[in-house]
Amino acid sequence: MVNFDERQPTSEVVEQKQLIAKRVPPGDRWALSGESDKVYASLTETLEAYFQKTKFNAAFYLDPIGSALYAVDRVEIEIEPEPIKTFDFYGDSY
Q1: What's the rounded Cα separation, in Å, for the pair 48 and 32?
Q2: pLDDT tens digit string along 34-56?
Q3: How many CB atoms lie within 10 A of CB 20?
Q4: d(CA 31, CA 84)
Q5: What does the pLDDT read at residue 42?
Q6: pTM of the full structure
Q7: Is there a contact between 22 and 31 (Cβ–Cβ < 8 Å)?
Q8: What is the phi/psi pair of residue 13, to 5°?
């Protein structure tokens, strides 16, 4: 007998992006969100400053078209299983 409940995943990993910096033209200069007075000379310096400020050590996403840098946090969410359909002798569900 096949147990179909085991085939359905019970959780899903979702990535949530949080804006942490915007590029300040010209060149490769960046400003952290909430710190418009401090401009960093490179992307590496910006990542280091963000790490020192928050201790966030995970993935980052660079949007070159939007001139934005995001911190990516992976969150696991639970998936509710679909209720099992039951039928009577004549095929009507109840």
Answers
A1: 11
A2: 887 899 999 999 999 999 888 87
A3: 22
A4: 52
A5: 92
A6: 0.65
A7: yes
A8: -95, 125
Place of tokens 């039951």: 86
Q: Of the candidates 63, 32, 61, which has an alpha carbon nearest to the alpha carbon of residue 45?
A: 32
The Cα–Cα gap between 66 and 47 comes to 17
Element (H, E) at 55: none
Domains of the chain, by residue range, sit at 14-78
Contact present, 54 and 62 (Cβ < 8 Å): no
Contact at 8 Å (CB) between 32 and 54? no
CA distance 21 to 32: 4
Q: Which residue has the higher pLDDT, 9 or 55?
A: 55
